[in-house]
Structure formats: C-alpha cells, structure tokens
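Q: Sequence in, structure out?
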Amino acid sequence: MKKSVILLLAGVLLTGCYCKTDSPRGSWARGCDISWLSEMERDSVQFRDERLELRDCISLLRAEGMNAVRLRVWVNHSTGWSNKEDMIGLAKRAAKAGQRLMIDIHYSDFFADPNHQTIPAAWEEMDYEQMKEAVREHTLDVLKALKQEGIEPEWVQIGNETPNGILWPVGKVNKAEGNWREYAAFTAIGYEAAKEVFPDIVVIVHVDNAYERRDWFWESLKENGGKWDMIGLSHYPMMSAWNGGKRWQEMNELAEENIRRLIADWHCPVMIAEVGTFANDPTSAVVMADFMKRIQAIDSCAGIFYWEPQVYGGWRPQEYIPLGWGSYGMGAFTEEGQPNEALQIMLRPETKPVGSVQKDTINGVPCVVYIPFKVENQKSKVERYPVLYLQHGMWGNEFDWTEKGNLVGIMDYLLRAGKVKEMVVIMPDNCPGKPTYEEELANATTGEWEQQFAAFMAEAERKYPISNQPSQRAIAGLSMGGYHTMRVSSVLDGQFRYVGMFSAATFVHNMPSEPALLWVAIGKDDFLYHSFSDYRRWLEDNHREYTYYESAGGHDWPNWQDYISRFLPLCFQ
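A: Exactly. Output:
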C-alpha cells in the first residue's frame, strides 16, 4: 500500500502537477531576470517596499506587477552561481510565487554574448558530433531537473545573444559567412531536446541590439535548418557606447520598427528578453514609458524582461572581482533598495492617458493645448491651475511639441508619477514659418510677438481655468522659441516665475529681473553653443542667478525632450 502511494505521487509529479501561475500562459509577460538574487542574498543585500519595510525580493517584485522570471544557467562556473542547482533553487521560489518561467541556457561556463561564446571546459576536447550531442544532453538535463521539481517553464532560450553563433569556434558565424551548418544544428538539436521534455515549451533564439535589422541572420539560420518558436531581443536604449552613439529616442523608434518587421517577416512572436536603463538617471523613467507605449501597441509582441533589476548600492557578483569589473550600472532599484520608477512603469499594467490635447485659436494665434482630465472635468469651474506657455523654434508650428516632442507622453508620465502639479500647457504658433531663413529670422525678431503676448495671455485666461498670478505662470521654448521666451519674459517683466530656455538663440541679452527659476540648457555639439556661452557670461557679469544643464548631442528633439522632462518638475513647487 505504501509502495503504491509513493509510485502514484511520483507519477503525478512527473506528469504535470505544476505550480499555478498568476497570469495565464501566452499573456503579456512583465518579467525580471533575477539570476544574481541568491548570491546577493548570501551577501546580505536587502530589499524594501514603499514603506521601507524589509521584503523578500521575489514577493516585492510580484507585488509591483511581475508575472514572469528569467533565469540563466551555465554549464559549470567555478563559483557555483548560475549553475543548474542555483537556477533550480530560484526557479522553485519563482514558481511558488506564481511566476511563469524563462530558462536562458548559455551553453558556456560563463556569460555568453555577441563577443563571448566560450566552449565549456568539459566540452573542449569534443568534436562537432560530440558537441552536438552535449548540447542535447545538457538541454535535457536542465529541463528534466525542472520537471522533477514540478516546474514547467513557459520559454527556453537556446543560447544567449547569439548573432555570432555559439560554442566558438565550432558554431561561430559572421553575418552570412562562417559555420552556419554547425550553429543551426546546435539550435535545432536544442529545440528538439526541449520539446522532448516539454512539448508545449516556447523555444527562443535570442540576439542583441533590438534596433538592428539582421535579415541575414534569420535567413541563414532558417536555410541551414535552425528552429525557433519566438524571437528574443535585447534592448539597452541608453547605452550609446554600445549603439554607435544613437540617442534613446532613436533606439526606441528603431526597435519598434524592427519588432514589427520581424513579426511580419517570420510570422512568430517577439519577446524583449532583456532591457535595461541607467540606475540613477532621472530620464530612465521617461525612456521606459516611451518604449512600453511603443511595444504594447504591437500585436504579437509577447512581453519584456528587465535584466537584473534588483542590483543597487554598488553590489557586484563574485565572478566580477578577479576580472576587475565594476558594478552593473543598469539595475532598477533605488539606493534605499526599492524598485525605481522605470521598473514600476515596466511592471505595472498599462495605464490610461491622464490628459488630452485640443486645437484652438487664441487671440488669432493657432495653438495646441494640453489639459489634464482632472482640470478639464473639474466640477467647480472656479479653481485656477498653473499654466506653461511652451514655444517652438524656426520653421516649426504649434504641433511640434506634441508631434515631435512627445509632450503628451511626457506630461502623462510626470502627472501619473506625481512629479508635477496639474497644469495646462499652451503651445502657440509663436513663429509662423517663412520660405527663407532671412524671412524667417526677420519675422521672428520684429518684436510683434512680445507686444501681443499680454493680450494673448489674457484671452487664454478667459478661455481656460488657468491662473493669472505670476507665481502660477511658466514660459519656455526651444531655439527661436527660447529667444522668444527670453524676450517675452523681459518685456512682461515679473509676469513669469519660471523661465526655461532650451538651445536658445540669443541675438540680444535680456532676462526678467527676478524669476524664481531661470533654467537654461544646451548640448555640447549644438551650433549655438558658443553664442549661448556668451549669454551665460552676460548673466554672470550682471549677477543674474540661473540653473544650467549641459547635455551631449546637438540642436535636436532628443535633447529638447530631455530638457522639458527636467524643467517641468521644477515648476510650481
């Protein structure tokens, strides 16, 4: 009788008695790769919730919205971390916490990536056929160990960031050249082994650089017999050093285009298997909000995983020390050990817009107006809100800040995060375009806009629930709009407590007498940099206080989006 019970229980365990997950298989994945967690806990790293109370890291991330965990597995690293046994321990905890699971098999004793695909020490003397069998046996061993524990992963990666193949030099490829037959065979036998253990598992081939179009990779892999169910991509939009100097806005846009193209070309879902933003950069939340908005609008984009978000405080793994490597700088926890805003944006369910945009004409001037729903729907119709007058540059129009500058997305995020007060943003056509530079310049510098601004502002205050108090008014602009900001705030001296000048043209040197904040910003490569430096010297010579922000890059929208994101939280505080 006892023997029968034992056999029955074993049969149940090995035939599918798996942990229940918080979210159904195939639903949008909001995950984290937490492979370092057990080592961090060994080092007494602590994690805290919003009340600064100590929490288990997996439980904390689950409460933030995490529904999936990604874990890497090495063949045999000397430290023991990220080997099969370490991975199994974390997988059991993740499954118990209702998490879906992705297993990232590196087929190496250490990190495998586009620059390193080192054969495990135990496989070094193998020939191609023996190595192919080793891939099969290792895949079976890893997945059967999970099955033995009653854990069924939803996804498995056959290799990590493999645009140049795996198991070098045997499976190394270089664009359309190299050992494609061998690499494709490694991928195919890993695919078949995974399906042997878990017939419904989703097999992923994973490459880096989500922004980069690599038709040659997928065509060569398919032509040589490679197999996959899903494409995995890595995306680190703020790492310009890795991305050929591209800015995050371009990175996000290119990644979106590439994801759509891959889905259309290969008729399979795409997963963002890794993402990361700078840990202590205030722009990171805006970067993540922009990327999430893009990918959540894509049918067959399966989800996203943040790579090692729990790292903070300068912690680094044991294996980094002999290599002289520093701490990972793209964790997503604060110095207090709490999830930061970028991670919260990624993990929390999609949120609805908090404001709307409408076209209007104010005192004969075409405008676009951003109004938070709370302001638009106020019942009293008496309360007055702060207002920002936001101006465009030469050859622009009233739509520039919303169509090119992502003003709506930035305001929605800042309001949702509680970083700014409810305010109305009025974007006028302050500089109607002219055919030539000379005509445009002459039109922009007549002084007419400064002279009519008081009437423009008075009508805006009649039409919208905005304050007429200087302490509740801000004005800002980019390029020629920065010049207009300087001139308007000087002509209407004392009427604006918050003044922002972004890459401003400074033909003349003025400024209001005593704003609460004069915030000026420019990129190091901006063609106006030297003239703007002259303006700063003028401010200093005249003992005028100002706050200066200098960025990389030039006279472009990525910078102006950055500047408005930094300026807005400083207003009306």
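Residues 30 and 66 are 5 Å apart (CA to CA).
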